[in-house]
Automatic annotation (TrEMBL):
GO terms for biological process: L-methylmalonyl-CoA metabolic process. It is an enzyme of class 5 (isomerase). It comes from Centropus bengalensis (lesser coucal). Gene3D superfamilies: 2,3-Dihydroxybiphenyl 1,2-Dioxygenase, domain 1 (3.10.180.10). Belongs to the methylmalonyl-CoA epimerase family. Pfam families: Glyoxalase_4. GO terms for cellular component: mitochondrion. It catalyses: (R)-methylmalonyl-CoA = (S)-methylmalonyl-CoA. GO terms for molecular function: metal ion binding; methylmalonyl-CoA epimerase activity. CDD domains: MMCE. Keywords: Cobalt, Isomerase, Metal-binding. This is Methylmalonyl-CoA epimerase, mitochondrial.
């Protein structure tokens, strides 16, 4: 009857098991990656972008904050499990201004991942030939130390690491 058909048509659940050789290839680090903090999006019109996320999509959107050291205005869009960071140029030497010259409509600029020890992460990443775009961490939009990893060393993605 129906019960037999339900039992035979139910999907099989498979579990992923890591082979011992795979798990042994994971290097041990003195620091740990944490959660995805935010995805940053460069926008040519900050007010329009704020309005999209606030008025159209119903998200909680912060006010714009100027970060002169980074050459940007930044706005955070709360998503519950992470955030979007809207970036707009502050000054002509802004890295976001040059990004928008190449990408007129804007687009994804970087991802930010939390780390438990940014100084140790920097030391180990340098040993592993990952280029860091500054000699020392800078204070980021959340008031915490941040560094950026060269996109050519991270499969084309600009990666920001932020002290958790």
């Amino acid at each position: 009857g129906i019960l037999t058909r339900l039992q035979t048509s139910a999907p099989t659940v498979r579990t992923l098991s890591l082979s011992s050789s795979f798990s042994q290839n994971i290097p041990s680090c003195l620091w740990k990656l944490g959660r995805l903090n935010h995805v940053a999006i460069a926008v040519p019109d900050l007010e329009k972008a704020q309005s999209l996320y606030r008025d159209v999509l119903g998200a909680q959107v912060s006010e714009a904050v100027a970060l002169p050291e980074h050459g940007v205005y930044t706005v955070f869009v709360e998503l519950g499990n992470t955030k979007l960071e809207l970036l707009h140029p502050l000054g002509e030497k802004s890295p976001i201004a040059s990004f928008l010259q190449k990408n007129k409509a804007g687009g994804m600029h970087h991802i930010c991942i939390e780390v438990d020890d940014i100084k140790v992460a920097m030391t180990e990443l340098k040993k592993k030939k990952i280029r860091i775009l500054s000699e020392e961490p800078k204070i980021g939009a959340h008031g915490k130390p941040v560094i950026f990893l060269h996109p050519k060393d991270c499969h084309g993605v600009l990666v920001e690491l932020e002290q958790a």
